[in-house]
Amino acid sequence: MKILGLLVALSLISCSVNKVETESCEIVTVAAFDIGSGSTKMMVADKNPCKPKIKTIHIEKSLAIGYAQDLLNNEHQGGELRFSDAIIEEGIEGMRKLNQLANAFNPQKRKGVATQAFRRAKNGEQLLQRWRDEHALDARIITQEEEAILGYQVVQTYHPTEDGKLLVWDMGGGSQQLTWFDREKQEFKFFNTNIASVTFKNRVLEWLGRDEDQNSPNPISSDEYEIAFEQGVNWIKQTLLTTEGGQELLHFIRNQAPEIRALGGVHGASLRRQLGLSPEESIKKAELIKTIQKQAGKTDAEVGGDFAATDVTNLILVRALMNVYGIDEYYFMSADLNEGIILFL
């Protein structure tokens, strides 16, 4: 299969390059940049090319940069799917700050991937080229399937699980990927959608009748939460019916009862922080409902942090997804896409 071939190719390319460049298994310091739709994450870490795990993480830093929101604003105003001058400048300044932090550890390589917002923006490649020129950043836009495979590789590296018994759930600002292996057909399967943090938050703004120029739906009352939840369930059900892989996903969850491991900012940052969880703890539907009730009625200032506008709606989104997917509990990963960039790209 084409996607399976891509997974094998990624591994072979990585092994081949490492063998040529580091025959003595010398430690390599890599700065990785996960350029997402709602944030840009940076990690500098050492890796031993002869071993499959990262040796030392020197620094991790995340900046809220709303590429997806910027595109949606332009789209609603009837404009082209292009990043605005304002978000480009914010991105340039953010990348400058992150690279300055990385410089303290003298990385030998700088690698990055850009995801959903850059897949959609007509001028996304131009911004990447500027970073290549200014920071020697080896960055590219990856497909949703490549993003899914990279996440699957990260999970299997830290939590080896029999293929056919693992479901990897990755969700960020602009897209969501669920990936599993079909043992009968011997191929990877995907359910990829744009139901994600920023897109859901904007739907909630519409469902609750908020002003068009309002960026955050907060505060959300208990009654409004029920409206957002019900509308979210309907949106997800419709997407499952009309998107490739949707019915196969439901069949896999019902019949295989897989171990579910989650990546991405929604699970590993937003929910983890709001539920007060430690790394590798599980997210349970019952605890999610309690936390939603606790966050109801709070303003952005009361929620706190750079991602307050989406934090509460993230809780509602994940509850709706768990309801439709038939999931009562899953585990989030402390590892993220940057570890995949360092290990496999």
How are the SSEs ordered, and which strands pair?
Layout: H1 2-21, E1 28-35, E2 39-47, E3 54-64, H2 67-76, H3 85-103, E4 109-114, H4 116-120, H5 124-135, E5 138-141, H6 144-158, E6 166-171, E7 176-182, E8 187-193, H7 197-207, H8 222-242, H9 246-256, E9 259-263, H10 265-275, E10 282-284, H11 285-295, H12 300-303, H13 308-325, E11 329-332, H14 337-344
Parallel strand pairs: 1-4, 4-5, 6-9, 9-11
Antiparallel strand pairs: 1-2, 2-3, 6-7, 7-8, 10-11
Helix pairs in contact: 3-5, 6-14, 7-8, 7-13, 8-13, 11-13
Domains counted in the coordinates: how many? 2
| Global morphology | globular
Helix content: 40-55%
Remind me, CATH topology of the largest domain? Nucleotidyltransferase, domain 5
Number of strands: 11
Q: Assign the CATH class of the largest domain.
A: Alpha Beta
In order across it, which strands form the biggest sheet? 8-7-6-9-11-10
CATH level-four homologous superfamily name of the largest domain: Exopolyphosphatase. Domain 2
Q: Rg from C-alpha positions?
A: 20 Å
Task: Quote the distance from N terminus to C terminus.
Answer: 21 Å
What this model shows, in words?
With 345 residues, the protein is of the alpha/beta class. The chain folds into two domains: 2-145, 2-Layer Sandwich (Nucleotidyltransferase, domain 5); 148-337, 2-Layer Sandwich (Nucleotidyltransferase, domain 5), CATH 3.30.420.150. Helices cover 51% and strands 20% of the residues. It contains 14 helices and eleven strands. It has a six-stranded mixed β-sheet with strand order 8-7-6-9-11-10, sandwiched between helices. Helix 3 packs parallel to helix 5, helix 7 crosses helix 13 (308-325) and helix 11 runs antiparallel to helix 13 (308-325). The protein is globular and about 60 Å long. The model is unreliable at 1-6 and 11-22 (pLDDT under 50).
